[in-house]
Design goal:
Strands 1, 2, 3, 4, 5 and 6 form a six-stranded mixed beta sheet that branches. A hairpin with a 3-residue loop joins strand 5 and strand 6. Helix 3 packs across helix 4. With 182 residues, the protein is α+β, with helices and mostly antiparallel strands.
């Protein structure tokens, strides 16, 4: 199931580091492999599973980490997912990093990450914003390119500070969510 051991997927970023890679057509395949494994592991707990983050936007540079959103009925259902996700190789990072988000990581613990899974309430603000942002970038190549340019600039400034890199993208993301229509 896991694509982490296959170097041809080009996945993996050092802990807390920001490294961007050229878009890789195999990232979609890596996502699909993980999606299938997560569906098997979570069964009916997972109402929907979506590829989010920059690796889901064709043609832009991205941190080579597959971001996956899993929608569950209630946020509390994420707790039932912990042992099931651990069985398929994910570490539980808790809910302290992003409000209303159970975060799971896969890779070499403490060293690299190849996959991040966000388990949230289906149709919640987090869920809806991730999908809306992804879909707007897919539908607007000029906006996707502007996002890529911002990411390149920020990766240069914050190569060793993933939290600052992520925080610095917030204004752009909010503008895309507010301004660009479908």
């Amino acid at each position: 199931m896991s694509s982490e051991g296959d170097d041809s997927f080009g996945l993996g970023v050092g802990n807390k580091c920001v490294t961007l890679a050229e878009s890789n057509a195999r990232w979609l395949e890596a996502y699909r492999l993980e999606e299938a494994g997560i569906r098997r592991a979570l069964g009916d707990l997972a109402l929907d599973i979506q590829h989010i983050g920059s690796t889901s936007i064709p043609s832009i540079k991205a941190k080579p980490i597959i971001d996956i959103a899993v929608g569950v009925r209630r946020f509390e259902d994420g707790l039932a997912c912990i042992p099931l996700m651990e069985e398929i190789g994910y570490d539980y990072a808790g809910t302290d990093i992003v409000p209303d988000d159970h975060i799971f990581g896969r890779g070499v613990k403490g060293e690299t990450r190849t996959h991040l899974v966000h388990i949230v309430e289906y149709n919640s603000p987090n869920w809806n914003q991730w999908l809306l942002f992804r879909d707007r970038l897919r539908a607007n190549p000029d906006v996707a390119l502007a996002y890529e340019m911002l990411k390149i600039d920020l990766a240069g400034k914050y190569a060793d500070n993933r939290a600052a890199y992520t925080a610095s993208k917030k204004d752009f993301i909010e503008k895309v969510l507010a301004v660009y229509g479908d």
